[in-house]
């Protein structure tokens, strides 16, 4: 693990210097702190990924990781055995990266939902996306719809989009106010959970039930580069959309009327952001299952760190979510080795006490 | 359409649930004046303010800003001209006074831009004019009701509007803060339209008064012209004695018990 420092130092020199110079031209106090959080967060994420990949049954060092990554990116040949190289590049690397992408994406979706719906209990799954995904998944896996041509992920994605469309249709019919959106989400969640249970109870055997349950709780086992590529692309696109709406999200602090009075097109903003977060959530859930709690807790933790301005909050939430899920997944796959704990179980076990702590610390302000 | 400056509503009507809330309302606040909007609950004051702010579209009639229909101006353009203060601003977000006042710059900024000097100057100026300069760092949630309303006015000023619309901004305040807030609004060099319940406060601070009843404007003019015993009896169904004992000989209202 000590070998990790040279890599990190190299990054600091090449990538860190522009950020360090920024404090000379800032207008507000606190910007140096922001730059520090930023640089520190990025370094922490890189370090976390590098170290998390070394952890597991096969003993691997950080320089091994660096050498494998460098050789696959075309910088020099790797001296690792094909097996070690395969463990790094084909097993642990995609899994760790997908953990980072899922953590970042779910945390950002949670932040946007909480601000947009003005509900501190909102999370990425509040619009029924995860329940729809689970129904889609069991329809494919248990009922065999698609005859094997449709993958679990594709089924889950289709289910998620169906559920989201139903929620939008319902809330539009019911008057499209914020609480109607939330209530429609709750209704869809109940409906699709019931459908999932019904299919599992009536048609699945024990093995299938166990598999579906494992996936429902969130699992990053067995993911490959195609999932990483897909989710990263969706995350990048959705992040750009969310960041473009950062100021707009600030305007929702005093409600949608206040936002409209500040020049925000409330209806358009809501549609754009709900669709964006639903798309991202659907992509993440269909690759890694419904990993709970990240989208609920991380936004609150990030707010305690940076304040509530979304220009700063969204990137910091993304970084915090990524680092958090990288370590939680590492814990999930090692703590009961050789058995794997669903990562959603670990996020909840860690998340609940963390949540209570955050709420306790901020109790005086609200 | 005749060229006019400022905000103007012409024959504005709005129905909800089969009931007419506004019925052919005309109002033209004189530029720079403080206009009091009086009337019983449900007379249409809030709806009229929302329509004047462009937050609600009228079913009939038209609202114009410098002669241009509000509906065709775009929300951001309107928000740079017209600011709104509600009777009770609520948030769960942990914001400082400065954060709230900065919200007023949103209509002036593009999606990706950082705040520039004009933004910071507008915010500083708004804080100074509302006497909040040394409270900038304080958390919104630790403020009293009166202070919160003052912060909302500072936020509105940061929008650098020429029209300020206030919907019963003193509703939840004690008398000291009511007086303080209305004095602040009356001194601003903006066109203000302010919905109020207290006739004496309206008489004290407003240049003009418009009285509404059941969705119609029933009287308009200076406080002395409008606030009379007959009007109070007619609009509120209440007996009162009106004397010219207010500041500068403005009307002063004393209510009488039922006969």
UniProtKB/TrEMBL annotation, chain A:
* Compartment annotation: Cell membrane
Native organism taxonomy = Bacteria, Bacillati, Actinomycetota, Actinomycetes, Kitasatosporales
Q: Check the record and name the Pfam families matching this protein.
A: FecCD
GO terms for cellular component: plasma membrane
Q: Name one GO biological process term.
A: siderophore-iron import into cell
In terms of domain of life, where is this protein from?
Answer: Bacteria
What's the protein name?
A: ABC transporter permease
Subcellular location, principal? membrane
Membrane disposition: Multi-pass membrane protein
Keywords (alphabetical) are: Cell membrane, Membrane, Transmembrane, Transmembrane helix, Transport
Single GO MF annotation: transmembrane transporter activity
Region called Disordered, residue ranges = 1-25
Protein family (similarity comment) = Belongs to the binding-protein-dependent transport system permease family. FecCD subfamily.
Span-the-membrane segments of this chain are 35-55, 96-113, 125-145, 152-175, 181-201, 213-246, 271-301, 313-335, 341-360
Automatic annotation (TrEMBL), chain B:
List residues traversing the bilayer.
Answer: none
Q: Where is the ABC transporter domain?
A: 7-239
Record carries keyword ATP-binding: yes
The protein depicted here goes by the name Iron-chelate-transporting ATPase
| InterPro entries, alphabetized | AAA+_ATPase, ABC_transporter-like_ATP-bd, ABC_transporter-like_CS, P-loop_NTPase
List its EC numbers.
3.6.3.34
Q: Which UniProt keywords apply?
A: ATP-binding, Hydrolase, Nucleotide-binding, Transport
What the entry lists under PANTHER family is as follows: ABC TRANSPORTER ATP-BINDING PROTEIN (PTHR42794:SF2), HEMIN IMPORT ATP-BINDING PROTEIN HMUV (PTHR42794)
